[in-house]
Amino acid sequence: xxxxxxxxxxxxxxxxxxxxxxxxxxxxxxxxxxxxxxxxxxxxxxxxxxxxxxxxxxxxxxxxxxxxxxxxxxxxxxxxxxxxxxxxxxxxxxxxxxxxxxxxxxxxxxxxxxxxxxxxxxxxxxxxxxxxxxxxxxxxxxxxxxxxxxxxxxxxxxxxxxxxxxxxxxxxxxxxxxxxxxxxxxxxxxxxxxxxxxxxxxxxxxxxxxxxxxxxxxxxxxxxxxxxxxxxxxxxxxxxxxxxxxxxxxxxxxxxxxxxxxxxxxxxxxxxxxxxxxxxxxxxxxxxxxxxxxxxxxxxxxxxxxxxxxxxxxxxxxxxxxxxxxxxxxxxxxxxxxxxxxxxxxxxxxxx
Length: 352
Ligand SMILES: Cc1cc2nc3c(=O)[nH]c(=O)nc-3n(C[C@H](O)[C@H](O)[C@H](O)COP(=O)(O)O)c2cc1C
Hints:
By secondary structure, the chain is an alpha/beta fold. The chain has helices spanning 22-29, 79-92, 107-112, 122-135, 153-165, 188-197, 211-221, 230-234, 238-245, 263-288, 293-307, 314-322, 327-337, and strands at 11-13, 40-46, 70-75, 98-102, 140-145, 170-174, 202-205, 225-228. α7 links the parallel β7 and β8 (225-228).
């Protein structure tokens, strides 16, 4: 991959702590239209930790051999940890790109001057891009947030163009401010403005819940690609629905079938996708990484906690998952929940 636009599919998953792991990537990738390709993130990886970790068994860096176009996300601002992390991720782990987190708004990131705090220091932010680029033989991207009321959109454009001059190959914008965290309306106009005023591919993110939202963001902002997090985790078949809209072939294993359309069909598909999520979490976290059953169960529970809001009776599912003490109970409880017809909701408040 020379740049993200070399890959033909205009939707990608967002990096999400505790969620964007190998099991979720596999569930979603199985809904990819035939011959479609996109890039795949990891959750954010602390550059101070990556150099000393076993990348093959740490849950955050577990990957499968079938995976390609992996673009792990790093968090950090120091030369040596970034250098060592990037070299390991590219040379040992097989990253095809490196994404730099400049959007994380948590207190710890603010204290250490990485994540979104880098957006307040253009010179240093550019330096972090240069540090990364110098050690990466693959493209480098940056994921940013919106500018707040104290800054103007021209300032955002100037900021991004400085990162591009420092070597950023593409930019992802989640146009909510640090104060908004993940709630409230995303300001898509800032995506439009970046696309109009910057020379590299722009990925838009925020307020995507359905395939119609994906198409609307592509048309109204002109962005090169859309990134979706919570809703794509809940509706992994959005990949298939989008493929149909674009005239692509059904995913492998779904030949001759149509993607779910009604909210009842989506409810049933959620149940099937969750069963896969359970199988893959058990396989990767316990069998491959040797983690405890408890950790693998917690991964599934967190997935349900984030995505249950799209199910009409999601709270009951969450309780059924929370009480399971092992994978055998979990499968029984989930199967029982989906014995009666379940219905999804098109939109939620996006409060999680
Ligand atoms: C549980 C959770 C964890 C997240 N962790 C990260 C992260 O590690 N790195 C990052 O850049 N953004 C992170 N985000 C933000 C998402 O990447 C995305 O920008 C945000 O959720 C908006 O997109 P969405 O509405 O499609 O979910 C996280 C979001 C959620 C819900």
